[in-house]
Fold this protein.
Amino acid sequence: MDLYSGYPFWLLKDGLLFSYPKLKKNTNVDVTIIGAGISGALSAYYLSKTGLSCLIVDKAIAGLGSTCASTSLIQYELDIPLYKLSGKIGYTKAQRIYNLCYEAIDELNLIAEKINFKGFEKAKSLYFAANKKDIYLLEKEFANRKKSDFKVKWLDHKDVFHKYGIHAPAALLSEQGGSMDAYEFTHALLRYCIEKKLSVYERTEITAIEQQKESIELRTADGFRIKSRYVINASGYEAAKALPKDLVKFYSTYAVVSEPLDKGKMLKKKYIAWNTASPYLYFRTTNDNRIIVGGRDEPFISEKKMQRLNHTKTKLLANDFKQLFPAVHFIPEFSWSGVFVVSKDSLPYIGCYKNSKNIFYALGFGGNGITFSAIAGRIIRNMILEKRDSNSSLFSFDR
């Protein structure tokens, strides 16, 4: 499956940052990671200090799947509000998951510093009502966030307009958020881990996985074999295709990037934002004074339909932004569409599926793929090291 169509901004901006070889020999390793996107790279990072030998294989080019198509808003807020998640799984579990995502942002910032990646930016997160009837929903969410001691402020329509220039009935302003170029960050992680003896192989498709008595054998499309003690499947939406249909749903999402704006015509402040609409609209700025707008999601039917809608969705998203900021001269320059997967409770799947002993999944589905990937990397590392992790049950397949 092509995970995107059009021209993802990060790929055009960065190009092919690094090339990695194709696996051309049989090999033995402690841990094999399938998928060289941000989930696989973060898994490798967490394992880099364990002394275990690791390799990553990707059937395509490293980072060129959904990672390069990510708009890379980094939030602790999930696609499902805290009050709704509490209604599904209970307040204690929901609060813990929100806390984990909150902590993951600080951890990603520390990882960026550790690997000398300069592109991570902390940012405030603005969650604004799409219309007046959604004020009630914001009030419920605000009460739950305050109860959980999250740093969040209530803004009325005057505050939102005065501080952020948005005509919105109300908003919640969170101190914790961030943005980056996930594609560039992934390669920075891979390069760092290569120095720690990680091996990375591109254009190396795994066609079979056989669980043996003492090990796991993986076979590539070219007939080579990898003997491994553990396997981490971080192939994202490719892995989702093999899961039962009642576990996940596929959607198409769309994004557009503006031409660079004059500094005097940029947004009043740098922040990330999203609204209460369903599907929600979101936007952020870039380091070169562009604005990225995304949303207009709909159930995925086919790649052809997704591609066919690119032009229409670009116009709609640009118009959505112009309605919020009539004075900002938003001229679309790049646009693309992508496939994303949502679980039935909007949470990731982390851990073993059914009886797949020592085969772990790091599947950060939904709009929090980056923070979920950080959480997954840490949990799976602990599972491999047989360390107790009280958070693993929150994201297990049998939750």
Observations:
- The CA atoms of residues 104 and 375 lie 7 Å apart.
